[in-house]
Each structure stands twice: as structure tokens, then as C-alpha cells.
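Notes to self, FimB/Mfa2 family fimbrial subunit:
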Amino acid sequence: MKHLHPSILTALYAGLIFLYASCVREDTSACMQYEVNVRVVDAEGNDLTESEVLEKSEVYLFGENGFVRMIPAGVSSDYLFGHYKDDRLTLVAWGNVKEDTLITAEIKPGTPIEEARLKLKQYAEGNHLPVTDLFYCRKELSNTATRGIREENITLVMERLAAGLSIRARYLTERYADKGEGYTFIVKGTGSEMNFMGKVTGEDSGYKPLTLTDGQGDAYAPPFRIFPTEKGECIEVEIYRGQEKLCTVTHDEQQQPLCAAAGKQTDIEIDFRYAEVRTFVTVLPWGEVEQETEM
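result:
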């Protein structure tokens, strides 16, 4: 954690005076002071905090009666707030929520945590934009402070919630000649919303990643990100030439449904050389891509 300049500390503690006033007007003995910092880890638990993968973070406070307020940011990844120490509280932290790909639906005071949600942003024709490198943490606060101790340090460890995908359709132009309309992949199967419990909900999504064609006749989508598939769920890949749907791929060569795990990179290769289309899936650590795609 970075050292704070004295003038900054003065401003932060002055802010706490106001927060205490919102906790109780005449007596602060019933209040707790919380200092919150955030960390980020990958799917294997490796600390990514110093890697600059986290570009922004937001912390939301929920009580027994629903949403209370957002926690104001301090310096760097530090947050400070005060609240009644007997209240049962839950903090939800999101990392890298950006308005160009995700919409935070309006959260009114009292909104249950299950009903607060993020929504995928859509293109004009209705398909969805891929998401950012999304991180998430939810932590219930168990107040164990004694009568004389009214301060608590909290660390929110955010895990990667986005799933990485890349797609390559080999020899696609040999099977379906290019008519100058271009090819498009649409990925369906996950929901279009993510609630503040970290669960995918909402209507079916239809991600439309950038799709390119190379000199070998392959169409491919460089690495992009989507909401992960939940247990027992799967995705499917639709391939279009212009507005014409050419085919839909739902299973790999082993007849396993296509899935996209949180924090992992999934490469899907669809081979059109044979009479029967063959599909191969490789799951790799985040950031690694086995296909010959541009990063």
C-alpha cells in the first residue's frame, strides 16, 4: 500500500467526520471505521495487484435492507467509510467496469443485492459487445471489534470473472466462398446480465466480436471476453456470411458442449476441410493463445 501525504490523510479523516455524522449524529461510540483496500488475483490465486491489470475499481455497500451507498474512493486503491458497528454489511467490489461495454443498471437505496446488476451493452442491431477484463469480489463483514476498538482493516480480493475466447474457422472460404459480404461470428449461450452476487442472469446474449479473414482462407476472431458459462451451461458459435447463417457449432470433436470458464482462455478451432465439420477446443491460462491469431 502506498504511503499517503499528510495533507491527503487530513482530507480523508475530515471526510470520515462527515461519514460518522451520517452514522449517528450525536455519539460515535456505535460506529465503526473501516479502511478497505483491494487486490486482484488470477484463476490460480496469483497476485496481480502490481501488474496494472486493474484499471479502475468500484465498491458498493449493502445492508440487511439492501443497497446503502457506494463507498467513496480514497487514494490509489484505498477506501474509507463509517457505519453502525452492529449492522450486518456486505461489500461488493467490481474491477474494470467500463461504460463502453457494460451498463450499471440504476441501483436505488434498498435494492436487494440479487437485483443489482450489470448489463451488456448492445450494438444498434441488437448483438452484444464483448466485455472488459472484469474482476469481482463480495465480502460479508463480521464485526468482531470490542467496545474500545472501532476500526477495522478489510482487504477485498477480486477474482477475474471474465472468460477469454478466440475462434478460428479454418478453410471457411473454401466451403463457403467469400462474396464480399464478410464473415461474422455470433457467440450465444450466456446471459446478458451479471448480478451483484456474481451470477450470470438475464436474457440470452449474442456476442459479436471482431471477425477477420486471412490469406489462408480462414476467418478468425482475435481474443475477446464474455461472461462465463455457469455450471451445466454452454455456448454456441453461429457463423454468418453477410446476413446468411452458414452453420451453428455447439460441441467439440469429443461431443462435449462448448464452455467458457471464468479466468481462462478458451480457443475454439472449427475445421471445414472435411465433409463433416470438426471442432477442437483448447483451454489455456489467461493471456495465452494457441491459435495463430493477432493479439
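- The first strand starts at residue 31 and ends at 41.
- The CA atoms of residues 20 and 82 lie 6 Å apart.
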